[in-house]
Amino acid sequence: MSPGVLLGVLFALVGAQLTRLVWPRRLGYLAALALAVAGVVAGELAALELHGGGPPLGPLHPLADAAGIAVLEVAGALLRSPGSRPGQP
Q: Domain residues of the chain, as ranges?
């Protein structure tokens, strides 16, 4: 397995955990994880397309990935109200 894939998985897991830490009642863990994975992919695509994204860490661009995760996690948290999760009082 490529080290880039492992770093991407690590970035997505850390992004999902940070979202659960900041907004514990806004998003479920699976939704936060899905948004974090999409953020890593979007950040990498933007970095490759724009030839930027900050200094590379192996095949990844951590600044672009963090920005992609942040944008998608904030958008997901704002679009989902706190009471819309099933099973929550």
A: 3-80
